Amino acid sequence: MASALVLRGDFHMHTWYSKDCGTRPAALVKRALKVGLTCIAVTDHNTIKGGLEVQKIAPPGLKVIVAEEVKTPYGEITGFFLKEEVPKGLSPEETCKRIKAQGGLVSIPHPYDRVRRYVLQPEVVEAIMPYIDIVEVFNARTTFLRDSDAARAFAEKHGFAKGAGSDAHCTLELGHVFVEMPPFDGAQGFKESLRAAKIKARRSSPLYHSVSTFTKIRKRVLLWGSGR
């Protein structure tokens, strides 16, 4: 049980507003509370609808950050503390500018993950370095620990705040990551609180990737069947 002086966070998760996830916002909230989370970031793919809905229904004991995992032509970038959606398909630099323009924070999700399709390459990260606030140094769905170690080394070398998340696409993945950190107010407070955080985490089973793939296919079939 987290005390009032320590938040227990997970800063990467999805709802059914992501194409590869079937989790209802209410189920996400219920599971987050059950495993002892007190602060979460909802990072749906290319939309903030899930984050806004979760924020609306969450009880006072669960702090919710509205976020978005945005797909660019060169990989994904996460924006935290968003008020408006950032369209997919923009350049990495323009994506970062759109996040910053609304007072948000720029985070690089699952860097160095050799298995994922939408990881920013080093030369792209180098080009957007002035915009970066946070580097995700642990993602429970990252297969190889040395990839997480590389992300941590990069963040520490350049002085970026270090984030972490379960990347949950189903509720059973919640509870794999806990970022224990001081309470905060607003985007800059969050960034500074991360600098004092302790990450307690374990990797998820690779089988959860299959769940995401199945969900994506199922949604496509249902959409095709509806004639839309």
Descriptive overview:
The chain has 228 residues and is α/β, with parallel strands linked by helices. The chain has a single domain, classed as TIM Barrel (Alpha-Beta Barrel), CATH 3.20.20.140. 35% of the residues lie in helices and 22% in strands. It contains seven helices and nine strands. The chain has helices at residues 25-35, 49-57, 92-101, 122-127, 145-158, 186-194, 207-226; strands at residues 7-10, 39-45, 63-72, 75-80, 105-108, 134-139, 161-165, 177-181, 198-201. The chain has a nine-stranded mixed beta sheet with strand order 7-6-5-4-3-2-1-8-9. Helix 1 packs across helix 2.
Helix content: 25-40%
Per CATH, the architecture is Alpha-Beta Barrel
Instruction: Please identify which CATH superfamily we are dealing with.
Output: Metal-dependent hydrolases
With strands numbered from the N-terminus, the spatial order across the biggest sheet is 7-6-5-4-3-2-1-8-9
Q: List the domain count as a whole number.
A: 1
Write down the CATH topology.
Answer: TIM Barrel
The fraction of residues assigned to DSSP E strands is 15-25%
Largest sheet: 9 strands, mixed
Residue stretches low in confidence (pLDDT < 50, at least 5 long) are none
Number of helices: 7
How far apart, in Å, are the first and last alpha carbons? 46 Å
CATH C-level: Alpha Beta
Query: What oligomeric assembly is this protein in?
Result: single chain
